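DM from R.C. (forwarded with permission)

"hey, sorry to bug you on a friday — could you get me a structure for this? deadline for the figure draft is monday and I only need the backbone to look sensible"
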Amino acid sequence: VDYDRSFRRMTYTVGDIDVPPDVYVADIDGRNERRLTDVHRDLLNEIDLNSRPAETVHWNSTDGTRIEGFLIYPHNYDPRASYPLVVMNHGGPHAASGYGFSFKNKLFSAHGYFVFMPSSFEARGFCDKHDDAGRIPKTFDDGAEENFGRIYDIEAASSYVCARPDVDCDR
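My reply, with the result:
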């Protein structure tokens, strides 16, 4: 986000997990929004990135914490088939992946993979705890409880997704 000197107009990017971002401009209150760029028009006219929209999924970790993640379907998904899974675990909170577009994830999808992005940082309050570098654990032992919680979250996430009949976790 960027603002003009008078703080009356702003520019920002808009995109989501299925659509690459473009630049928009609007009044500071959000009125008079206008798209400024269409950078990916030629690419999106040439290839189909979204044969099925991504899905937000929820599951309980081993300690009962409700966790959220995002599941990108394989290109030309057929519910009668089964597909291998790529888990895109992320660091964070500053390097967190979320509900944003990623060409890398779409490449896996295009090659017939489910792409799963579990995210337990917000559910566990890590984003609030780690809002500056001085509060991030310096070693694994310093943050053992949080680090093990993340491992258990990813294990529970994998079990949740692998229970689906359309996911083949042995490939």
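R.C.: lifesaver. Strands lie at 2-3, 9-14, 22-27, 34-35, 55-60, 66-72, 85-87, 114-119.
me: no worries. The two ends are 42 Å apart (CA to CA).
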